[in-house]
Amino acid sequence: MAIQDLANGQAAAPASDAGGRSGGDDIKAHFVFIPIMFQGHLIPAVDTALLLATHGALATVVVTPSYTSRIRPTIDFAHTSGLPVRLLELPLDLAAEGLPAGADDVDKVPPDLWTNYFRALARLRTPLERQLLADADVAHPVTCVVADFCHPWAKELAASLRVPRLCFFSMCAFCLLCQHNVERFGSYDGVADANELVVVPGLERRVEVSRAQAPGFFRDMPGFEKFGDEVEQALVEADGIVTNSFLEMEPEFVAGYAGARRMKVWTVGPVSLFHHRTTTTTSASRGNTAAIDADECLMWLDDKEPSSVVYVSFGSLAQANSKQVIELGLGLEASGHPFIWVVKNAHQHGQDVIEFLHELEGRVAGRGMLIRGWAPQVMILSHVAVGSFVTHCGWNSTMEAVAAGLPVVTWPHFADQFLNAKLAVEVLGIGVDVGVTEPVMYRMDLKEIVVGREVVEKAVRSVMDGGEEGEERRRRARVLAAKARDAVEEGGSSYGNLLDLVKRFEVDTAGCVVATA
Questions:
Q1: What percent of the chain has pLDDT over 70?
Q2: Domains of the chain by range and CATH?
Q3: Which family does it belong to (predicted)?
Q4: I want to staple 441 with a disulfide (CB 3.0 to 4.6 A). Which of 79, 290, 414, 510 is the partner?
Q5: What does the DSSP assignment read for 168-225?
């Protein structure tokens, strides 16, 4: 499929921005974004593409078919604003890697076939290169590939196109530096217990992690050992790093990671704030179609007191077992606070959970709202009635909480979430921890870890009430949100980094790509 403007089905041409931003012949840089098709990676990559477009760049976003409709509303909105953003849809060769029909959607890929899925993604390299060359825009040639770090094959693609390549991370520099340092300094050498804490070397403050909490990228996934090495090598050879973070939140960790990697790190977040400057419609449709009408949700929130509502969501991947669902619901009920609870895949639980949720809704009618499916999270968190966020600490969610100025209850499930939780609680001082110390997902032993209703109730009461300690936590969250807004405004660090990206990866008058160090 050729590069398309999916708003009208025609081949896209850069357009002038009605808001006065550069477009058309003024465009000098052309970024090709290759996200990985997980919502926590895809959503910030698309937002970053939009932000670069507001600063005078052309952005092409590569998607696979299952995800086109999910980001179409966002791209349609960009087109109405005159932003030069385009989609390039490419199908995955599922059969070649033994994947079933429909496995383009990662929600339908069982964990035992994830190695097959990543091999299928790597097969995109040849058709993507062919398509980019076939659709070569003489006036606006590709000047930079921005690929998710999970796409090590993108280094060969960029080399074939003879353009620089940046690694995109939907993670914070604190997480990246901790992961890098424990591996670089062999912190786990000789440590037999995966839950034994070690001190992360090379930091200005004391941070302790275990191998279970921070194993390194793909280091704890059977069958991904070689892939993990490829990811690391591709990162070593990158021309720079782009992250959804902002300098004022973690300056020592941004500097530390840039120094450790010996390459430029561009912090461009919080990228979700792009939608704060637009409309409710675009924030409500960000990432997927919501399972609740936006107006209905807003009317419910409008009826609540300021900062009185607890928002509860564990993202697109994290799954709770049936017992945990019931304990969480009872804890929220006992807290006495109004709440919005996003229940993922409720229909997949047993009849006992389905009946429990129905009965809970009856008991908390008017005080509690259950959303079964995708929620308009940015819109909800931005509402004045919301006072805290119970989160799995995926980085998208964490940054959205930061941007909204909300304290958080940290409930990590796997991957980078434990380090994000440590950042929120131990470094930023905006979080309350429920005490989960090891992963509950993608384990070989299927160990059951349940947070009891009393712990849930206590954590919610602490983050919502909390006396002087709670007020100080809320004050820190408000200060951090102000810094986040300043970062993305003219003169801010993220605003300046976006401008710098466009300037560094542009085409000069001789038609050569400029990529200054």
A1: 86
A2: 1-170 (3.40.50.2000), 286-485 (3.40.50.2000)
A3: Belongs to the UDP-glycosyltransferase family.
A4: 414
A5: EESS-HHHHHHHHHHHHTTTTTT---TT--EEPTT-SS--EE-TTT---TTTTSTT-H
